[in-house]
Structures are given as C-alpha cells and as structure tokens.
UniProtKB/TrEMBL annotation:
<dbReference type="GO" id="GO:0003677">
    <property type="term" value="F:DNA binding"/>
</dbReference>
<dbReference type="InterPro" id="IPR002577">
    <property type="entry name" value="HTH_HxlR"/>
</dbReference>
<keyword id="KW-0805">Transcription regulation</keyword>
<protein>
    <submittedName>
        <fullName>HxlR family transcriptional regulator</fullName>
    </submittedName>
</protein>
<dbReference type="InterPro" id="IPR036390">
    <property type="entry name" value="WH_DNA-bd_sf"/>
</dbReference>
<feature type="domain" description="HTH hxlR-type">
    <location>
        <begin position="10"/>
        <end position="116"/>
    </location>
</feature>
<keyword id="KW-0804">Transcription</keyword>
<dbReference type="Pfam" id="PF01638">
    <property type="entry name" value="HxlR"/>
</dbReference>
<dbReference type="InterPro" id="IPR036388">
    <property type="entry name" value="WH-like_DNA-bd_sf"/>
</dbReference>
<keyword id="KW-0238">DNA-binding</keyword>
Length: 117
C-alpha cells in the first residue's frame, strides 16, 4: 500500500488572509452576533442581544462576546452603576467586516432556493 503525498493545493489554507478571517468569524454564532450588532447601531446590551438570538445560551453568548472582544471586533463598555450596565458595539475593525456579511446575505438571498430547482 503506497501513500500519496498531499497535493500542494491543500496548503493554501496556511498563512493566508482567508484563513485568518475565517479564524476570527468561525463559530456557530460569531457572524450572527456581528450582524446583530451592525443592525442595532450604535450599541446593544447583553439581554437585548440574547433576545435577538433566541437559540444561543447565556453562557455561549458571554463566551462568544469575550472572544470577539479579544479579537478586536467588538467593544465592551461597562458602566459603574447598580444594576450593572454593559453595552456592546462594533469596533472599526468589526465594522470593516460588515460589507462581507452583507455580500453573504445577498448571495444567500439569490441562491437559497437553488437546491429546490
């Protein structure tokens, strides 16, 4: 039994802009959260975001928001008051992804019924 070497075309995922972008938005809810933040300008609070994304658990939302903040895609503003007030918004870096998300929406609207044809 001989082993074939992997084709060079598989190496394209290495150190590329595509791979980097995918690493930032990969995850079940990351793009949904980014899009929700874009739609609810300028800021949205945690519970409002949870209501927008009914299927996400509080824990998953919290963890995903932390990841997006650590990646510099969102801004978390915490206000020292009782009860605590935290608002989320897109950073300039996060806003720069919105045209990509818009293009994905447009593509989906055009092609979502293709399989049924």
């Amino acid at each position: 039994m001989s082993e074939k070497a992997a084709p060079d075309s598989c190496a394209f995922m290495g150190d590329t802009g595509f791979a980097y972008t995918l690493s930032l938005v990969n995850g079940k809810y990351k793009m949904i959260i980014l899009y929700a933040l874009a739609e609810h300008k300028p800021v949205i609070r945690f519970n409002e975001l949870k209501r927008c994304i009914e299927t996400i658990s509080f824990r998953t939302l919290s963890l995903t928001l932390k990841e997006l903040e650590n990646d510099g895609l969102i801004i978390r503003d915490e206000y020292p008051q009782i009860p605590p007030k935290v608002e989320y918004s897109l950073s300039d870096r996060g806003k720069s992804l919105i045209p990509v998300l818009d293009m994905m929406c447009e593509w989906g609207n055009v092609h979502r019924h293709d399989v049924l044809k």
